[in-house]
Amino acid sequence: MKKWMVAVVAGLAMGAFGAPTKIIFDTDMYTDFDDVGALATLHALADAGECEILGTVVCTRGAPSLGMVEIINAFYGRPGIPVGVNRELGIGPLKEPQRSYAIYLDMVKANAGVVKHPTSDTAPDANETYRKILAAQPDGSVTICSVGFTTNLRRLLETPADAISPLDGKALVAKKVKAWYAMACRFPDGIEYNSGTDGESSKIAFEAWPTPVYFLDFTYGVEVKCGVPVSNRTEAVNPVRDVFKRALREYKEEGKGHAAWDEVTVLAAVRGWQRYFNTERGRFAIVDAKGKNTWTKDEKGSHYVLTVKTPKAEVGKIVDELMARGPMDWIDGRDLPMEGRAYTDVKRFYDRLPASVETNKTINGGVWGQCHHTTGESFRFSTDAPWMRLQWSLIGSGLSMNHMPATGMSGIDVYTWTKEMGWRYCATGRPVRQNDNELTVGVSKDQPVQINLPLYNGISSFKMGVPKGSKIAPLPPRANGVTKPVVFYGTSITHGGCASRPGMSFVNIAARKADVPIVNLGFSGSGRMEFDLAAVIARIDASCYVLDCLWNMSDELVKERFEPFTRELRRLRPDVPIICAEDCGTFRQTLSNKGAFVKSVVEKLQAEGWKQISFLPNTEQLLGDSEETVDGCHPNDWGMMRMGEGFARAIKKTLGLKE
Question: Are 448 and 576 within one domain?
């Protein structure tokens, strides 16, 4: 157990969102408190592996700004992030503290043990911090996210070559910076606080900046509200909560939340503008001494303003969820206790078959083509975490079929267990895209959890986030003593078609009702009992084999292959029971031709002295009420439940388990 827990801590995922975005965060942390939410959002995304925070610099001198940044960095477990502050130019301390500024002063005083730079005066020069960070990074890899005055960026452009880099500031930015995301615009024209307060720096910086600049404008951000969920957090220590709780009250925004200018800018900078925004291309300019800006559309311009794509209310919910997470540990699915994965010599981690099957030309291509589908695979564990954040990305871009919903084909679902009720459905993760799907689930302390993976799609990455320090443990062996899996080999119905969600596959239902581990080797349209597959399946040390291939085989093919396949499986695993299933059918209750042949083979083998081989007729699977399928063949959830119960009875009888 201890060894496994170490592996979990060491195995944090890089992230479902691809390579982490390298971010330098530049803030005023001055007269408003959305900066606090922005930095909390940034840390939440860093915890999830979506970004790497290279530095956190401030553009206000002689203020508690950097001290507040240090408090948040320490809270999220990153006290060593490089920091810096501007010198000589720009904005100094306020003469009359405003509401947010006063909150920062109080926070810095209350957290004196964490704060190294309570007034920023002793902090490194932001120029030095920027140049050191940029010089050390790969070309074109850094994103700058500024949610305050543009002073630091103007100063960076004006730096000469030095011992840190032979490049001057503009050349260094051109070489290392991919993009600059700025909360600094009033679209299409007007005066915006961040760009206007130090208008001289804004004019210089935006005119001279050599890489693309993406603007989040005032009018977009003011209509996205956030902060109420984080203000309601109840943990003993949470500085983000403390700031928002007090600020929302003082701003009289307790019920509706605060404008999310800075938080939305961070979201765009880390995840890229394409996911939630459209853009208009043009040129942004500061046109007078008061900092007034104008916007000119220009298809050759290097400036882009973010416009609405995802509804603003949804963007607000995304930001709120990130802000309210608090520090988290993220665990790669490859490090979670898992069932249903039978082989380790695979091409992709979650594949259901060994890599050698790909080159075996005696096995039809549909088998290998679907071996990455994760049907039957699940994570099973207990945790003391009160909630889990689940993220998964998919191999296939097709989320659904015309007779099977996306929740079943590409979604996940969660079950929890209690002594009184056993395994009970808890939540469904609905896929909305190929990558970056998410689900948050609340659970009770130390409650057993099972997460079923997609039925007709594959997982390219999976990770689970829990509050930092939470424990994850494998479930103990089942009380009935069954430790080896029941292995199902079959067709699209075995595969899971067409359950509404993974837990409603009849194989998964049978597993819950019989309380046994399972391996699902159902292959849609491809369960044809090729002789070589018997040896592949026999590699699994099973408690029982279930053969359910008749739907994919003609009468002639059943007569040709069923008996040789079954004999080979028994030869390789002489002591393992075999259940031979008839092809199910909702419009008949009589024995099918193929079913009759299989039954005769079973009776023949029993007469030869075979033990523990049985025949499961259609009448033990579907009821024949004509309401059990989506298309006359593939069961709906009603049919899946009937089949799951029938197969569970057969498994219990075969394994000698109590009904």
Answer: yes
